[in-house]
Specification:
By secondary structure, this protein is mainly α. It has one domain (22-158). The chain contains two helices and no strands. It starts with a helix and ends with a helix.
Length: 159
């Protein structure tokens, strides 16, 4: 009834039970250490995540502040540009008015000069025609005296 195989089987079962008890403590200890390591990693990850979220929130707040500052700077620049345009517009209008007045004065002087030159040429031309007409009617000597005295009288009147 009891043969050797039976005792070997019982010995093998006992060996497995005792070996399992020894390994069981070691396995539980290893699994506990691994679980605590994983838990520690998870806790550290959550802390890092919370820190990253707070930094992200701080960056968002700073971005909003920078955006507000940029908007304010842009509006100030626009206002300054409008003030410069208005100031320049007035000075440009003054400059244009002064240039216009100067040019009108120059045109007036040129007109007076041209009228004077035309008047002088017209008088000279008339005098030549009168001289030619008189010379045909008066003798050479009388003609020269009359023309000379007439030219002198006209020159005195002109100048």
């Amino acid at each position: 009834m009891y043969n050797e195989s039976f005792f070997i089987l019982i010995a093998f079962i006992c060996f497995i039970v005792f070996a399992f008890k020894g390994i069981k403590g070691f396995a539980y200890k290893y699994l506990d250490e691994y679980a605590s390591s994983v838990l520690k990693t998870i806790t550290e990850s959550e802390a890092i995540k919370e820190e990253a979220e707070s930094e992200l929130q701080a960056v968002k707040v700073r971005a909003e502040q920078i955006s507000a500052e940029a908007s304010m700077l842009i509006s100030e620049a626009k206002e300054e540009a409008e003030r410069i345009i208005e100031a320049t517009k007035g000075s440009i209008e003054d400059l244009l008015h002064n240039k216009t007045q100067h040019m009108l004065a120059r045109i007036s002087r040129y007109e007076e000069q041209i009228h004077s030159e035309i008047k002088t040429e017209l008088i000279t031309h008339v005098l030549r025609n009168v001289e030619a007409h008189l010379s045909s009617q008066v003798t050479q000597k009388a003609n020269s005296e009359i023309v000379a005295s007439s030219l002198d009288a006209v020159k005195k009147v002109i100048h």
